Amino acid sequence: MRWLRYWQGDTLRTAVMEASQDYVRPVSGDPFGEHRVSDERVPLAGLRLGPPIAPSKIVAVALNYRSHLSDRDEPGNPELFLKPPSALAGDGDAIVLPAGAGRVDYEGEVVVVIGRRLRHATEAEALSAIFGYTCGNDVSARDWQNGDKQWWRAKGADTFAPIGPWIETDLAPSDISLRTLVDGEERQAATTAQLIHSIPKVLAFASAVMTLEPGDIVFTGTPGTTQPLLPGQMVEVEVGGVGRLRNSVTGEHRAPPVQ
Amino acid sequence: MRWLRYWQGDTLRTAVMEASQDYVRPVSGDPFGEHRVSDERVPLAGLRLGPPIAPSKIVAVALNYRSHLSDRDEPGNPELFLKPPSALAGDGDAIVLPAGAGRVDYEGEVVVVIGRRLRHATEAEALSAIFGYTCGNDVSARDWQNGDKQWWRAKGADTFAPIGPWIETDLAPSDISLRTLVDGEERQAATTAQLIHSIPKVLAFASAVMTLEPGDIVFTGTPGTTQPLLPGQMVEVEVGGVGRLRNSVTGEHRAPPVQ
User: Fold this and answer.
1) Is the confidence at residue A47, as pLDDT, over 70?
2) Strands in chain B per DSSP E
3) Residues whose CB is less than 8 angstroms from the CB of residue A223 and which lie 6 or more positions away in sequence, other chains included
4) What is the pLDDT of residues A60-116, one digit of tens each?
5) pLDDT at A145 > cutoff 60
6) Residues B195-210: tens digit of each pLDDT
7) pLDDT tens, B118-132?
8) What is the ipTM score, two decimals?
9) Kind plus residue range of the DSSP H or E element containing A8
10) What are the distances in angstroms from CA A72 to CA A67, B62, B108?
């Protein structure tokens, strides 16, 4: 099943997609608990989509494909970090290159959505608590990433966490294909079979120290090499069995903040 | 005015304190928008308090008092990082030392609560958007902080962000006193007049790249040196004009996760 959210005026409405994929049906209640699918049918065409979920936190994995390591050592543990919910964007939204950020790269990733509270979970428990999968772009400002002590803005500026277009629930995490395209040209290609730390392992590892809540999302790592995004480009992240997340790139038209 | 939240069964209720400080009055609605203070009076004594606010994100500042720098350079920009909302705890809750974490230190801090959405704010705009202040403990696992690439678990494990006991709205940020006590003995003492980057500057700097939402909180930095917390200790963070946040310390009684 596919879950999404779309804008209706100023509010995001949750919906599920019909099998035909031409219409969606709005949902009321809690996607992870009691909810009701309405009889209303809304044509998908013409909807402006938002991020398909509102996570209480966003966890992400660094250095999780060998192809992305270059001369760095393979990490013994998953190397995690946090992105703030204010960085979320939806399919069709623009990625805004912040004034003064310098180089900003795409990082196409498979994103996991948690469906049930996890704490001290085994890998099997983590696997069974996954709600679904979506496409994500872990947009990364390299100069800030190298210059700051922590990656709060390098990975956390507004629009640096586009996800979508929807969440697919009927997918297994062991071999999901992933591609990134810039202006239609393939730039990254991998499968989750190549992850250094598997998705259940990452979730179990995170849940050993922090509670993962229903709706929380995990960016699982980016493969290969990445390149800077330029204003006017279109970046697409394609996850097999899900679809394509499309975001244009735009520059922020203001003077850099005084630093 | 003082705002707090207390547990009623499984839910947290928002309330404001009466002038006498003996009773609280439950509030319905949005503390930052339309809300109603009820006529019901609930005795403060005997209430179990929760974190006084539910932030969409927690921003924190590293290296913001000269007394905490030792041989490190004074940062030109505020050095920020994120803590996850799952790390929150309230006054009276235990700080749990995670199995396998090694050394875990207290870091007493003044915490700012945002009252109005901020983006590209000037320092004056940021100042006027502050809702209030509370006490916070930026609990920090030093071995993880030194060994991991990012501080996701060093600063983000469950119970590593106690705040409270309440939010005081009638306070100016320029000279707020701060003390930390362990088992009644003073371990840290400073005032926000000694901050390297002032509170309005930190907020303006953060808002240049990320939207700060009403309810978001900012840990403003810790002074002096810090020491490990031990099971059985009581750690208190006192903020002048607010009060004291009290948390006991307990060990996690389970085998460390396989790593």
Assistant:
1) yes
2) 2-8, 11-17, 23-29, 35-37, 42-43, 49-50, 58-62, 79-83, 88-89, 95-97, 104-105, 108-114, 130-137, 140-141, 161-168, 177-182, 185-191, 217-219, 234-239, 243-251
3) A65, A67, A68, A108, A178, A188, A189, A190, A194
4) 999 999 998 888 888 899 999 999 999 999 999 999 999 999 999 999 999 999 999
5) yes
6) 999 999 999 999 999 9
7) 999 999 999 999 999
8) 0.95
9) strand A2-8
10) 11, 26, 36
C-alpha span between B115 and B103 (Å, rounded):
35
Residues of A with CB under 8 A from a CB of B: 56-57, 59, 62-63, 75-77, 79-87, 98, 101, 119-120, 148-153, 156-158, 204-205, 208-213, 254, 257, 259
| For range A220-240, the mean pLDDT | 97
Q: Chain A: nearest CA to B156, how far in angstroms? A: 7
The label of the residue with tokens 């304190």 reads B17
Contacts of A179 (CB under 8 A, 6+ apart): A108, A186, A188, A189, A237, A238
Whether A174 contacts A189, CB under 8 Å: no
pLDDT tens digit sequence for A92-106: 999 999 999 999 999
DSSP annotation of A124 reads H
Domain A49-251 matching CATH 3.90.850.10: the answer reads yes
Euclidean distance between CA atoms B110 and B108, whole angstroms? 7
φ and ψ of A24, to 5 deg? -120, 160
Instruction: Assess contact for B55 and B217: CB atoms under 8 A.
Output: yes
The verdict on a CB contact (< 8 Å) between B150 and A150 is: yes
State the alpha helices, DSSP H only, in B25-153: 123-128, 142-147
Query: Which pLDDT band holds residue A245 (cuts at 50, 70, 90)?
Result: very high
**CA pseudo-torsion sign B184, B190, B191, B192:** negative
pLDDT of B147 above 70: yes
Q: List, by residue range, all CATH 3.90.850.10 domains of chain A.
A: 49-251
Show residues of chain B in contact with A83, CB under 8 Å. Answer: 82
In chain B, how long is the greatest CA-to-CA distance? 55
Among B76, B80, B152, whose Cβ lies nearest the Cβ of A81? Answer: B152
Of B152, B158, B204, Cβ closest to residue A82: B152
What residue of A is the nearest CA neighbor of B54?
Answer: A56
Q: Find out whether the peptide bond into A165 is cis, omega within 30 degrees of 0.
A: yes
Contacts of A76 in chain B (CB under 8 A): 259
Q: In angstroms, rounded to a whole number, what is the distance separating the alpha carbons of residues B111 and B217?
A: 7
The Cα–Cα gap between B13 and B7 comes to 6
- What's the pTM value of the predicted model, to 2 decimals? 0.96
| Mean pLDDT, residues B27-52 | 96
Tokens of A190: 């991998």
3-state helix, strand, coil in chain A (%, to 5): 15, 40, 45
- DSSP lists the bridge partners of residue A235 as A182, A247
